[in-house]
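Re-run with default settings, no changes from the original entry. Doing this only to confirm the output is reproducible before filing.
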Amino acid sequence: MAAQSIMSESINDRLKHWLSPLKDFPTPFYLVGGAVRDREMSRPVTDIDLACQNAQQVAEKLAAEENVTIVRFLKNPDVPCYRIVNRSNTDDHIDISEMQGGSIRADLARRDFTINAMAVPVLQDGPTDEIIDPFGGISDIEKKRIRVTGTDAFTDDPLRMLRAVRFCAELGFMLSKETDTLIRRDAPLISKIPGERIWAELRRIFQDKDSRTFIRLMDKLTLLPAVFPEITAMKTCPQNAHHHLDVWPHSLAVLAYCEEMINAPAGRFAQSAELIEAHLAENDREALLKLAALLHDVGKPSTRGVNDATGRITFYGHDKAGAGMVTDIARRLRLSKTERKYLVSLVAEHLHILSLAMPSVKTSTRMRLFRKLKEDAISLIIHGAADVLATRGPQSSPAYRTAYLDWAGATLAAFNGTILPRLSPDKTPIRGKDLISLGISSGPDMGEILSQIRQAWDDGDIQDHADALDLAGKLISTKKKNRCLT
């Protein structure tokens, strides 16, 4: 069963398929949670969640009769849940949870929000038309409202506070007044949650096309500084005359501009829209790029100084300091090595990319950074565009912004055709074995000569292998004049 067909297949048919081996199993089944909510909202039901008694025995019964794998799955703390996965297609799965409290109503009372605290009895022919709705979930769907089932919802599981914001983003709902108040009360508890669970929710919030609205909501709720205590100092850090906004509002503005370009890349970079879309679709780059935009100046408060002679505010080394802080944040969120490297490089190099747009910069200087970052340079160029657009102080001229955007557009347009091919190890004008044939052994001399040839190649001073050999001979001759080479 392909993923697309799973999306289009009716929930009735899917339940019949999964439950057919359980016709004689003596336990009632209930469709619960998001599946009921999405069915009532006429949204595609992608995940089927069932609650029943003896969930483990049910899972084992299915495994004995079907071509499936059982995965012990922690969807909610301390609630046994078993994901039953079709071996032939891992997109085809069903989650079976142990009913809590001895009855379906008691089970629903333990859930997070009223819109997720509904159940539908499931018979062998599929779900019935009955909806068990003890907390008014249907009414809250109609009112587009996220409302907790009880005042201890967040103390029971603090991650639910992030889920509340995520549901606002994904469903277009608003927080009820009570839920808003409880999040403000319980926000500090989020620090108790493992980082990977926090990032799983944050990633989905950042994937929303209007994530800036919900990041601001998290900030208003005091939830954002509870997740990222580092931003507290950013909120009281004034900037210099290059900026019209202080550090924190500037960071929010960079996020907004970054999101604008992610949502509609053709608006700024008409020739590179497909390149940008394909690039950001991989490896969670979209969410991580937005996080980098939010945190790129996190090192400014600790590096802020004032020039005694001019009175000018300075932030020397804030890119390096910020990279160190973001490294700690990435570890706290338990990002993968690849994700951490990507995120940290965007913060570490966010000033560097702006300097590369200056006309006096050599091509070889730009290529050194591109070789370091490879395809991730695309993200850094976009981040730089957002940064300059959000920098509008009296010492930041429109000409400066235009110059960077023009350079960024031209560089992105040339990236696949001209830049990326030169980044490949196969696309080098000369190799170490060529120098060995000219009498240079492996070591510092070889590395220095290869570096000089590569710089000449990047600057366009040499065009092919023959030019590279000719230059190598001249460099070797110069060295021999200065000292004896072995």
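Residues 146-227 form a domain with the Hydrophobic Seed Protein fold (CATH 1.10.110.30). Residues 398-423 form the longest helix (26 residues).
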